[in-house]
Write a structure and sequence with these properties.
By secondary structure, this protein is α/β, with parallel strands linked by helices. Helix 2 packs parallel to helix 3. The chain folds into three domains: 202 residues, P-loop containing nucleotide triphosphate hydrolases (Rossmann fold, 3-Layer(aba) Sandwich), CATH 3.40.50; 154 residues, 3-Layer(aba) Sandwich (Rossmann fold), CATH 3.40.50; 76 residues, RRM (RNA recognition motif) domain (Alpha-Beta Plaits, 2-Layer Sandwich), CATH 3.30.70. The protein is 37% helix and 16% strand. The chain is built from 19 helices and 20 strands.
Length: 551
């Protein structure tokens, strides 16, 4: 029986390497792209989620088509982040273990450029690069792209989200006209279409699943709680799922740090990633997370770009993303390579409309998740303790003198069980046996006016038609910054915080336009924000005012 990857047209040395790694059956994206890219028939536009085997889909044809006798750089793979860049380079080296003389060099920011220059001068058939470092090395004349025959843009939507559009276009402009270009993206926005129409020539289009679709092996759930109960809800989810290993997505850098600090103080193995960390600190956090010294990683959308960690059990959305297309990027961090995963959104009533937008966008239905009560957590842990105890294998039973074991033997069975469980549960330090139910009643609403108390399935967006006076409970504000300023939602929150000293958590429901944005805030925060003076962004004064007062 032929090896399935060989039937795609791959040569024996590559197939042997794949078998040694444990590749058995090609994924759908690999089946549809490998033969096409091997034949070099033309450009490729591929819509596929992360975790579907994209690296092998473009990497294997590149490796097979490399002329190792030609020392020029022949293939360029551009990725949005350092982590993804390193992952791609590592995978390609693994696939090419039986190919002689093929050199793969990753170049990325946050690491010694001198070392990377030295590696490049030795020779690189394939360069895997992040946009910023690649531009830097091109400016230094260390990398020349005139002999490039293949260019891959991996996670192109992520690169656009991170503000790399100008860099991408500058890089592509330096490559030869006659080349094969492959663009891979998890979502197909109008911006991706523009890039494709400009730089790809009559590309073959491959769509794995539906556009903006969620992975089928992820369970999408939501829990309805009051905003003040979110931290308690998070802890209970972690306590209930003893094997919890996941990422918690937050809105701001400040929030990731604060929640991480609280969790550590409460005895959880947690840490955080955000933009204020130096690269060495980020590397240390990721090393600990990958080796499970940290089981819980708090991160913003920007900080989590390119994270590829296997075996994550959960993704928790402390807040749903302002840009709802980011939901697929977040949830796709779990259920990698055919595994199963759980994505849970912690919602208060004013976030319900986002849930319904996501359901429409990626064609799913969220199931309700009930936050466990303390008694549920204790029962779950007791069951796990008993299962482990009963299943314990003892090959050789040592004999203990009667005088040693007599204090236990004289106890009744019930006393032994109770004392054993009490001892084990004391180690866990859960302390939630009497904790109340914090799940919102979805049937309770204020039907005529005011915020929704529950989270009914057909709940609309509440608070969007805010009062024109700051004295109202919820206020809609205008700020003269937007997408044209190449900032993202969490960055806008940070700018508002630094300009007004009002916490970014007060900023919600951002609607980002071209040169301006709207957002919601409580009346007290809004009053402070509207008094902002002297704050600037790139030399331009920052202006915040009531949306109804805008001329």
């Amino acid at each position: 029986m032929n090896y399935p990857f060989k039937e795609l047209g791959l040569i024996e040395p590559i197939c042997t390497a794949l078998q040694a790694i444990g590749f058995e059956e090609p994924t759908e994206v690999q089946k549809r792209t490998i033969p096409y890219l091997l034949s070099r028939q033309g450009d490729l536009l591929a819509l596929a989620q992360t975790g579907t085997g994209k690296t092998a889909a473009f990497g294997l044809p590149i490796l097979q088509n490399i002329d190792s006798e030609d020392n020029h750089t022949q293939a360029l793979i551009i990725s949005p982040t350092r982590e993804l860049c390193l992952q791609i380079a590592t995978d390609l080296k693994s696939y090419s273990r039986n190919l002689r003389k093929v050199r793969i060099v990753p170049v990325y920011g946050g690491s010694s450029i001198t070392v990377q220059i030295k590696e490049l001068k030795i020779g690189a058939h394939i360069i895997v690069a992040t946009p910023g470092r690649l531009i830097d090395l091109m400016d230094r004349k260390v990398i020349r792209l005139q002999n490039i025959s293949t260019v891959v843009l991996d996670e192109a939507d992520e690169m656009l989200n991170m503000g790399f559009r100008d860099d991408m276009e500058a890089i592509l402009a330096k490559t030869p006209e006659e080349k094969l270009t492959a663009l891979f993206s998890a979502t197909m926005s109008s911006d991706i279409r523009k890039i494709a129409s400009t730089y790809l020539h009559s590309p073959e289009e491959v769509t794995i699943g539906k556009k903006n679709a969620a992975q089928q092996n992820i369970s999408h759930q939501y829990a309805a709680v009051h905003a003040k109960d979110k931290y308690t809800a998070l802890k209970r989810i972690i306590d209930f799922h003893e094997d919890f290993y996941g990422i918690v997505f937050c809105s701001t850098k400040i929030e990731t740090q604060e929640i991480s600090d609280h969790l550590v103080r409460d005895g959880y193995a947690a840490d955080c990633l955000h933009g204020d960390l130096a690269q060495a600190q980020r590397d240390k956090v990721m090393h600990r997370f990958r080796h499970k010294a940290v089981k819980l990683l708090l991160a913003t959308d920007v900080a989590a770009r390119g994270i590829d960690v296997k075996n994550l059990t959960h993704i928790i959305h402390y807040h749903l993303p302002d840009d709802i297309e980011n939901y697929t990027h977040r949830s796709g961090r779990t259920a990698r390579a055919g595994q199963k995963g759980i994505s849970i959104a912690l919602l208060h009533s004013r976030e319900a409309y986002k849930l319904h937008q996501i359901e429409k966008l990626i064609n799913i239905k969220f199931e309700r998740y009930l936050i466990p009560k303390g008694a549920d957590i204790l029962q779950s842990r007791v069951k796990r303790i008993i299962d482990n105890f009963v299943g314990l294998s003892i090959e050789e039973q040592p004999e203990f003198p009667n005088e040693l074991v007599w204090p236990i033997m004289k106890l009744s069975k019930e006393e032994i069980v109770n004392r054993f469980l009490a001892s084990e549960l004391k180690k866990l330090n859960l302390g939630q046996g009497e904790s109340p139910d914090i799940n919102l009643d979805e049937k309770s609403r204020e039907r005529d006016s005011g915020p929704v108390k529950g989270l009914g399935r057909h709940q609309g967006r509440s608070g969007s038609n805010s009062s024109s006076h700051v004295s109202g409970k919820s206020v809609r504000l205008f700020i003269n910054l937007g997408k044209k300023d190449e900032i993202k939602y969490d960055e806008l929150r940070e700018i508002i915080f630094k300009s007004t000293k009002v916490s970014g958590r007060s900023v919600r429901d951002i609607e980002m336009k071209g040169v301006y944005s709207f957002f919601m805030a409580d009346s007290k925060s809004a009053e402070i924000m509207c008094k902002v003076k002297g704050a600037t962004f790139k030399g331009r004064p920052i202006r915040i005012q009531l949306a109804s007062d805008r001329n």
